[in-house]
Specification:
Blueprint lengths: L1 H7 L10 E8 L6 E8 L12 E4 L12 E11 L8 E8 L11 H9 L1 H6 L2 E12 L32 H14 L3 E6 L5 E10 L2 H20 L1 E4 L14 E6 L1 H4 L3 H14 L1 H6 L23 E3 L6 E3 L1 H6 L4 E3 L8 H14 L3
Parallel strand pairs: 1-5, 11-12
Antiparallel strand pairs: 1-2, 3-4, 4-5, 6-8, 6-9, 6-10, 7-8, 10-13, 12-13
Helix pairs in contact: 2-10, 4-5, 7-10
């Protein structure tokens, strides 16, 4: 094995200018990440300088067999924490050969929203709190849980330490460092309320980059769990019963909200979000009705409610924001399996472009 790891860790830069680019895209389910690698003649830092590529869309549920070619457009570059050196990870989106975005390409519409002059002028910032659960590979049961049984009730696990409270910290820490290495603006990690569940935060990120960075962070986490022999679940309610679900709380602010008088702007934005509650819920992730029950720090899925420092609300405003009269708010409705391109662009569209 040592020879294998020696080869995996070979530093190519001593012998060749060539680099490896791992092209990453979202598959047909809207949640499955796919990737393949190609050799490039030398280092690249600008996605527009990268060649387009293609793949067999009939094998990812994105095209029919008789016309299966889907084209990858490179959109964002991150350093590759697995191959290191000048090698890169490339976040791509997906198009027909004629240049039309395919139906599962949610980035294309988000890019339109984020390039709208009214949105650009407001410099929207996002901070996304990605919760996830680590499962044992063959039984799909959370790591650290007794097989076919349950651990002690929730309470000691949130931000806990110790072999009987924190399960999978090595994976979490490896992911944290790998994201920092890659150039992702990961801002923190913590153990969650349910044992075997963790969270990382990405942001603040501006506009479309929030989606690019979150998808890159998810890809890196999939790769690390693959190495560890553990399964990553983004299910919003992986275990039924008296256990917390998993969300992707999305923190949001605009230039006007961050400036003096911003609290009034925040209240108007929240009012607009309330008027489009149903549309947002339908776009905020699959299976969210199992999570948004009005229990376990959630608001009921059919109710729109906002409040200061209220974790049982749809939208939470922080005490600091209320006190300073400016700042940001947190949309607590998105599920852990939401598409960040959809959620971030929809929040910007509703609060900045939609006229009720």
């Amino acid at each position: 094995m040592s020879l294998l790891s020696d080869l995996l860790n070979l530093d190519l830069s001593e012998n060749t200018e060539k680099i490896i680019a791992e092209y990453i895209w979202i598959g047909g389910s809207g949640l499955d990440l796919r990737s393949k690698a190609r050799t490039l003649p030398g280092p690249v830092s600008d996605p527009s300088k990268l060649p387009k590529w293609n793949y067999d869309g009939s094998s990812t549920g994105q095209a029919p067999g008789e016309d299966s070619e889907v084209i990858l457009y490179p959109q964002a570059i991150f350093k590759d924490p697995f191959r290191r050196g000048n090698n890169i990870l490339v976040i791509c989106d997906t198009y027909t050969p004629a240049g039309e975005p395919i139906p599962t390409n949610k980035r294309a519409n988000a890019a339109k929203v984020f390039s709208h002059p009214d949105v650009v002028a407001e410099v929207p910032w996002y901070g996304i709190e990605q919760e996830y659960t680590l499962l044992q590979k063959d039984v799909k049961w959370p790591i650290g849980w007794p097989l076919g049984g349950f651990p002690g009730p929730q309470g000691p696990y949130y931000c806990g330490a110790g072999a009987d409270k924190a399960f999978g910290r090595d994976i979490v820490d490896a992911h944290y460092k790998a994201c920092l290495y890659a150039g992702i603006n990961i801002s923190g990690i913590n153990g969650e309320v349910m044992p075997g569940q963790w969270e990382f935060q990405v942001g603040p990120a501006v506009g479309i980059s929030a989606g690019d960075e979150l998808w890159a962070a998810r890809y890196i986490l999939e790769r690390i769990t693959e190495i560890a022999g553990v399964v990553l679940s983004l299910d919003p309610k992986p275990i039924q019963g008296d256990w917390n679900g998993a969300g992707a709380h999305t923190n949001y602010s605009t230039k006007s909200m961050r400036e003096d008088g911003g609290y009034e702007v925040i209240k108007k934005a929240i009012e607009k979000l309330g008027l489009r509650h149903k549309e947002h819920i339908s776009a905020y992730g699959e299976g969210n009705e199992r999570r948004l029950t009005g229990r376990h720090e959630t608001a009921d899925i059919n109710t729109f409610l906002w409040g200061v420092a209220n974790r049982g609300a749809s939208i939470r405003v922080g005490r600091d924001t209320e006190k300073e009269g400016k700042g940001y708010f947190e949309d607590r409705r998105p599920a852990s399996n939401m598409d960040p391109y959809v959620v971030t662009s929809m929040i910007a569209e509703t609060t900045l472009l939609w006229k009720p």
